Amino acid sequence: MRLKINKEISLPVFLQIKDSIKEQILSGILPAGFVLPPERKMASENDVSRTTVIRAYDELKALGLVASYRGKGTVVTDKKEPSHSENPNVFPLSWYPLFEKKLGNVSDTITDLMDVGSRRDTISFAAGVGDPSLYPIHQLQAIQNEDTFNNDVLNLSAVEGYYPLRESLSKLMELRGVSTSAKEVMVLSGSMQGIDFAARTFLSPGDAVIVEEPTFLQAIQCFRAAGARIIGIPLDHGGIRTDVLEAQLGRYKPKFIYTIPTYHNPTGIVMSMERRMELLRIAYKYQVPILEDDPYGEISFGRQKLPPLKTLDQYGYVIYLSTFSKVLFPGMRVGWVVAPEPVRKKFVLLKQITDLHVNTPGQFLLDRFLREGHYEPHLRHELTTYENKRNLMAAALKQEEGLVTFDSPDGGFYLWCRIPYNIPQKQLLSLCASKGVLYTPGNVFYPQESDGEHLLRLNFTYESRERIEKGISVFMDAVKKLSRHNTKMNPIIESRPIV
Amino acid sequence: MRLKINKEISLPVFLQIKDSIKEQILSGILPAGFVLPPERKMASENDVSRTTVIRAYDELKALGLVASYRGKGTVVTDKKEPSHSENPNVFPLSWYPLFEKKLGNVSDTITDLMDVGSRRDTISFAAGVGDPSLYPIHQLQAIQNEDTFNNDVLNLSAVEGYYPLRESLSKLMELRGVSTSAKEVMVLSGSMQGIDFAARTFLSPGDAVIVEEPTFLQAIQCFRAAGARIIGIPLDHGGIRTDVLEAQLGRYKPKFIYTIPTYHNPTGIVMSMERRMELLRIAYKYQVPILEDDPYGEISFGRQKLPPLKTLDQYGYVIYLSTFSKVLFPGMRVGWVVAPEPVRKKFVLLKQITDLHVNTPGQFLLDRFLREGHYEPHLRHELTTYENKRNLMAAALKQEEGLVTFDSPDGGFYLWCRIPYNIPQKQLLSLCASKGVLYTPGNVFYPQESDGEHLLRLNFTYESRERIEKGISVFMDAVKKLSRHNTKMNPIIESRPIV
Question: Domain A13-99 adopts which CATH fold?
Answer without folding.
Answer: Arc Repressor Mutant, subunit A (1.10.10)
